[in-house]
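Reopening this one. Same input as before:
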Amino acid sequence: MNWTKNELVAYILLYAANSDFSESNDERNIIISKVDMNQFQRIHKEFENDNDYQSIQKIINGIEAHNYSKDDISELMVDLKTMFFADGEFDTQEQSMFLLLKKILTR
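Same output, byte for byte:
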């Protein structure tokens, strides 16, 4: 896995967007604002081939590989909140996913 930091963020946001098993156009647009369309399509294809365990491992390994600082994590948490509120709701599934990602990212 040789992702840039932006590609990792896109993968994490894609993981978050799918917490309710669907991606809205608004959510896709947020992700595409982080990477170009080709990168998005490549990351999306990889995401679709990964199971939940593989996704979490990739997120953990990516955070470690890029030596995320507390500031980087804080910025990522803001991006996640933006993602979760993209459809105007922050439902129970999304809240659970946010807490899971927060735990993973701040370990």
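So the earlier flakiness isn't reproducible anymore. For the record, Residues 11 and 64 are 15 Å apart (CA to CA).
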